[in-house]
Amino acid sequence: RQGMAVALFSGLSDDFMGDMLRHTLDASGVDYSPSTRAPLPTTLAFVRLVGGQARYTFYDENSAGRMLTENDLPTLGDDVSAVLFGCISLIAEPCGSVYEALMVREAPRRVMFLDPNIREIFIPDRQKHLARMRRMITLADIVKLSDEDLAWFAEPGEEHEVIGRWLALGPKLIVVTRGADGADAWTADFHLHVPAIRVAVADTVGAGDTVNAGILASLSQAGLLEKEKLVTLSREQVRQAVQLGMRAAAVTVSRPGANPPWDHEL
């Protein structure tokens, strides 16, 4: 929707809800040919909005999206510049291990973007998931997480000290979002704050994903979505990337249905 060529690797059911997902992906210009198609059920996500904030319940046992294997991993062409990983797909097994294997395989040659998007209620083994997140942080070039996500890690020290340690592990850019209080971004060379855009909030579902899309779109449009170029990002380049993410997320939360904006809406 932001004018980038995007593809999805997941497991899609051959049931009618899988058909609905494919139709929606088609309508948004997403190539889902890397995804598998399986005679398994579609994951169901139920969302209850309380004061504009989302509470979730997922039904994911033996689903098409969950039951991936490493044999399903796609071959990525030279036109793929970045890969985004995140959320509950990294919790459930076997798909969590498959996505981690994909990151290990592709990290040496493409930009890796990690959004931990912690959903604590769905994490059966905190230590196991914490270990996975720490491994993936060391492989990531960009990490975006909310202040609540960061608190879940329970790292010792002040926030800037935690971010500094993470940057030393490998990431070139770390962004922490704070809802109505905007977002902060760090590289090895600087820290900056980007204010939020004030809107009437209708539905927060998808806000973080929209920030991810804006950051990736901005960096791609500027020709910066390459591992070596992320090392030398300027303050203004980072500001523009986070600002696009925040502008896009402001549109998403202003209307119901996790419906992120098209580029012409920005």
From TrEMBL:
Matching Gene3D superfamilies: 3.40.1190.20
Pfam short name (any one): PfkB
Protein's UniProt keywords contain Repressor: no
Top-level taxon: Bacteria
UniProt GO molecular function: ATP binding; kinase activity
Keyword annotations: ATP-binding, Kinase, Nucleotide-binding, Transferase
InterPro entries recorded: Carboh/pur_kinase_PfkB_CS, PfkB_Carbo_kinase, PfkB_dom, Ribokinase-like
Keyword GTP-binding on entry: no
Domain (Carbohydrate kinase PfkB): residue spans on this chain: 1-263
Family the entry assigns: Belongs to the carbohydrate kinase PfkB family.
Name listed for the protein in its UniProt record: Carbohydrate kinase
Taxonomic source organism: Klebsiella michiganensis
Lineage: Bacteria, Pseudomonadati, Pseudomonadota, Gammaproteobacteria, Enterobacterales
